[in-house]
Write a structure and sequence with these properties.
The protein is α/β, with parallel strands linked by helices. The chain is built from eleven helices and 16 strands. The strands form two sheets. Strands 1-8-2-3-7-4-6-5-9-10-11 form an eleven-stranded mixed sheet, sandwiched between helices. A hairpin with a 6-residue loop joins β9 and β10. The longest helix is centred in the C-terminal third of the chain and has 17 residues. It is globular. The termini are far apart. The protein binds threonylcarbamoyladenylate (TXA) and magnesium ion (MG). Threonylcarbamoyladenylate (TXA) binds next to β5, β6 and β10.
Length: 356
C-alpha cells in the first residue's frame, strides 16, 4: 500500500526536538523520511536495515546498481560503516566535515551490500545541516540517503520539489526551507591509489588540492555510457529536465549572445517554446527575446548560481518550454560541478568554434 506523505515544517537553525523525534521514530521503523541537507534534499532510511534500504530504491524508481551515500552525525562514527579509516580520510574529515564532501572507503560488513549496490566500498559523509544532523543523531543509526527525486529527475532543493516527485511514495518530508549549496556533494574515491573525484560537487577541486595535493578527476561523459562505470549510477541521463537542453559552452560573450539570439529565432519559428538559463550579465543582451528566462546568478558569484541551478531548470520545465538553452559557467571552483550537471542534462553542447 502506498504511504500517505506527511510534511512537517521545521526550523533550519533550531530544529524542534519533538519533530525530530517523530522523524527519528519513522527511521527506526524502517520508513522513508526526506530531509534537508546543505546540498539538496535527501531521501533517508536506516542504512543498517536492508528492507528500509530496498524501499529507497523502489520509491525513487532507482536501479539497484546505483549505490547510496551513508550520512553520519560525526566522523567518530566512521568505524561503524567503514572497514578502515585511512589518515587521509581523517585529514579531509577534519577540514571539510560537516560539509558537501563524500568519501568512498572500504565497506564494513555491518552495512548491507544493497546500500553499495554490491560493491565492497561505501560512500559516506557528514552533512552540514542542523536538521540532518539532529535526525541522524536522534535516530542513532547511519542514514542512507540519495537525492530525494525520482530517478533521472533534477535533484530537489526545496520540500516542494520533493513533494512533486515523491508524494504518495514516502512517509515524511521535513521542510527546512531551501538548501543553501544547491548542488550535490563532491564524491571522492579514497580507495584508488590517487584520490579521484567521481562526481564534482560542493567542495571544489582546488580546495581538495590545497589539503591533499594530487587529485584526479574522472571524465565520465554521457558518451561513455556503455563503458564500465567507475562510479555506478553516474549515467549521463541523470539530472535531466523534461525539456531538451543545449549547453552553450562558449567563452566569448558576444558569440554566446549571438548564438542565443539565433537559436531562439530558429526554434520559435518552428513553433517551439524556448527557455534561457542564464547569468545576470546576459540579461541586457537577451531580455527582448521571445523566451522564458531563468536568471540564476552572476558570473562572479557561482555559489548563488549553484543554489539556483536546479530551481531554474524546474522553473523552465514548469513553464512548459520545449528547449532550454543554458549558458556555461566555466570550470573553476563550483563551475566544475555546475558544468557537470548541465552536461549530464544536455543532449547537445555547442562551443565557440562550432556555432550552428
Ligand atoms: O549531496 C549529496 O551527495 C546528496 C545529499 C542527499 O547527501 N546525495 C546524493 O546522493 O546526491 P545520490 O544517490 O543522488 O548520488 C550518490 C552518488 C552517485 O553518483 C553514486 O554513484 C555515488 O554517489 N556513489 C555512492 N556510493 C558509491 C560507491 N561505493 N562507489 C562509488 N560511487 C558511489
Ligand atoms: Mg541523485
Amino acid at each position: 500500500m502506498n504511504p500517505v506523505t506527511r510534511i512537517l515544517t521545521i526550523s533550519e537553525r533550531n530544529p524542534d526536538p519533538s519533530i525530530i523525534a517523530v522523524a527519528s521514530q519513522a527511521i527506526l521503523e524502517g520508513k522513508l523520511v526526506a530531509f534537508p541537507t546543505e546540498t539538496v534534499y535527501g531521501l533517508g532510511a536506516n542504512a543498517l536495515n536492508p528492507e528500509a534500504v530496498a524501499r529507497i530504491f523502489s520509491a525513487k524508481g532507482r536501479p539497484a546498481e546505483d549505490p547510496l551515500i551513508i550520512h553520519l552525525a560525526s566522523p567518530s562514527d566512521l568505524p561503524r560503516v567503514t572497514l578502515e579509516v585511512p589518515p587521509m580520510a581523517l585529514l579531509l574529515a577534519q577540514e571539510f566535515w560537516p560539509g558537501p564532501l563524500t568519501l568512498v572507503l572500504r565497506r564494513h560488513p555491518a552495512v548491507p551490500p544493497s546500500v553499495s549496490a554490491g560493491l565492497d566500498t561505501v560512500a559516506v559523509r557528514v552533512p552540514a545541516h542542523p536538521v540532518a544532523l539532529a535526525l541522524i543523531q536522534t535516530s542513532g543509526v547511519p542514514i542512507a540517503a540519495p537525492s530525494a527525486n525520482l530517478f533521472g529527475h533534477s535533484s530537489p532543493t526545496t520540500a516542494r520539489h520533493v513533494w512533486e516527485d515523491l508524494s504518495g511514495r514516502i512517509d515524511l518530508i521535513l521542510d527546512g526551507g531551501p538548501t543553501p549549496v544547491g548542488v550535490e556533494s563532491t564524491v571522492l574515491d579514497l580507495t584508488s591509489s590517487i584520490p579521484t573525484i567521481l562526481r564534482p560537487g560542493g567542495v571544489t577541486l582546488e580546495a581538495l588540492q590545497e589539503i591533499i595535493g594530487d587529485v584526479h578527476t574522472l571524465k565520465n561523459s554521457p558518451l561513455d555510457r556503455g563503458k564500465p562505470q567507475a562510479s555506478p549510477g553516474l549515467l549521463g541521463k541523470h539530472y535531466a529536465p523534461h525539456a531538451r537542453l543545449i549547453l552553450l559552452k562558449m567563452v566569448n560573450p558576444t558569440s554566446l549572445h549571438q548564438t542565443l539570439r539565433r537559436l531562439v529565432s530558429d526554434e520559435t519559428s518552428k513553433g517551439n517554446r524556448v527557455g534561457l538559463l542564464i547569468a545576470s550579465e546576459d540579461l541586457p543582451f537577451v531580455q527582448d527575446l521571445p523566451a522564458k528566462l531563468a536568471v540564476i546568478g552572476s558570473l562572479d558569484d557561482l555559489a548563488t548560481v549553484a543554489r539556483n541551478l536546479y530551481g531554474g531548470i524546474r522553473q523552465l520545465d514548469q513553464e512548459n518550454v520545449d528547449l532550454i538553452l543554458a549558458r556555461d559557467f566555466g570550470n573553476f571552483g563550483l563551475g566544475m560541478a555546475i558544468r557537470d550537471r548541465l552536461s549530464r542534462a544536455s543532449s547537445q553542447q555547442i562551443t565557440d568554434d562550432e556555432q550552428p
